[in-house]
Design a protein that fits this description.
80 residues, 4 strands, globular
Length: 80
């Protein structure tokens, strides 16, 4: 309560298996919910999520976590 925008939003939703149109909508709505300088962190097992983030986020950082079982892809979409 009392906050207009989020600093960070975290998701483990399986973007690669969502019905058509849902992934882009989640990325768009998440971008709108973030404050400038905020980030959307998504952890996935497929790099496909980058396709959903690219149209909405000005900068996307990527990391790989091999120790996770199964290994995970981490993507940060930053809102300028």
């Amino acid at each position: 309560h009392g906050h207009d925008h989020a600093d960070y939003i975290l998701s483990g939703l399986p973007f690669s298996t969502l019905p058509p149109g849902i992934g882009p909508r989640i990325a768009s709505e998440t971008h709108a919910a973030l404050r400038p300088g905020g980030a959307f962190l998504v952890y996935q097992f497929s790099p496909k999520v980058k396709d959903f983030l690219t149209p909405h986020f000005e900068r996307i950082d990527h990391a790989f976590e091999p120790v996770n079982i199964p290994p995970a892809q981490l993507y940060w979409g930053w809102k300028d």
